């Protein structure tokens, strides 16, 4: 599996920002109450970020520690997939929070402090999930085996 690309994260961030902004504008155009994220969403995102890191650290210790232990490859793959999903979802939610903040700042009328604080809290939680997913992916990288290094000689090199 390949690592998460920055371009993928940027695209998801842009999609999230556009949708967050457009949803708020559409709600205002329909004379409906605007979306205000709850503080518990930010706390839940921080909890998910902690889980992503907590699951990846034992795999890092098993593969990079002084005493290497065997780990279940299926468990390691699940942890990597969870970390990758966390980084992708974190990018999308970060974009959505940026879109909510952009709509708050650009709308006419006064700036609602409560909505601003709620959006900033969700932005912080979403950034934490994004960062934890990327860190979790990094922690789950396994060094190459000795057999993988000596598979084929480099082109143009002299064989003994």
Question: Would you mind describing this structure in some detail?
Answer:
- The structure is a single chain.
- By secondary structure, this protein is mostly helical.
- It has 5 helices and no strands.
State the order of secondary-structure elements, H for helix, E for strand.
HHHHH
Q: Distance N terminus to C terminus? A: 34 Å
Please tell me how large the radius of gyration is: 21 Å
Envelope shape: elongated
Weakly predicted, low-confidence segments: none
- Give the overall average pLDDT: 86
In DSSP terms (H or I, runs of 4 or more residues), the helix count works out at: 5
Helix content: over 70%
Number of strands: 0
Structural class: mainly alpha
Strand content: under 5%
List the helices and strands and how they pair.
Blueprint: H1 6-29, H2 39-64, H3 73-106, H4 113-139, H5 146-149
Helix pairs in contact: 1-3, 2-3, 2-4, 3-4
What is the structure about, briefly put?
It is built from five helices and no strands. By secondary structure, it is mainly α.
List the defining traits of the structure above.
5 helices, 72% helix, 160 residues, mainly alpha, elongated
